[in-house]
Every structure is written in structure tokens, then in C-alpha cells.
Known about the structure:
alpha+beta
Amino acid sequence: MKLPLKLHDQRGFTLVEIICVLVITSVISAVAFSKILQADEGAQQIGIQHGVVEMNLRETVTWAVAKVNTDVIDDDLIWSQLDKKLGNEYSWDSGPNPSGNSTLKFKETAVVVARFVSTNTQPGKWSR
Length: 128
């Protein structure tokens, strides 16, 4: 037995309403995705900055230990004792340079950093 179709009594969404919802959802997704990409780039820049701060802290500690143990600070001595490995996410292009520019990478972001040598009165300094 066939049931009669009642077209005037059916409830649901029209095709226009569904398309409008899909368009709005697509626009919101596109905006959110671009914000996520920008946040990732910002996080990588902060990671680079933290790497530079970490190298400055290590340089200062290494210099202070050498200063306690000897009267004359030799930059070559400081450089040889300095731990230059920042972790798995960081890498150096062709290794860090003891006096000059080096390229520090954090994930996909690379930045040129400079090291100023240690002297008898102050530790070496890293900067972007």
C-alpha cells in the first residue's frame, strides 16, 4: 500500500538555507585557518628569541665560572666550554660562529644572530 505524499506539510531546510550555512561555515574556517598560521609563525619567532636568551644565559654562566677559576678571560676558552646545543627543535646552519654572524633555526624559521666576544670585564653577548 502506497502512502500519499503531502508536500505542503513537510518540514526541513531549503537548498538556499543549506548553501548559506555552508558559505558562512567556509568563511569562518578560512579566517580561523589564517589566524592559526599566523599564531604558528609568531610562536616560532618567540622560539628564536628564547634561543637567543638561552645562549646569553649560557654565555654568562660559562664566563662567570671561568672568571672564578682564572684571572684572565680568553674568549677561545669560553667558546670551547660553551654548550651550543639548544634542543631538538633548534639547529645551526654550519655551526655557530665564535665571533660574527650565525644562522639559528627554530623549526622552519631561520634568523641571523651575532655573537660579540667575551672580554675580561664582560661575557659574550648574542643578539638578533
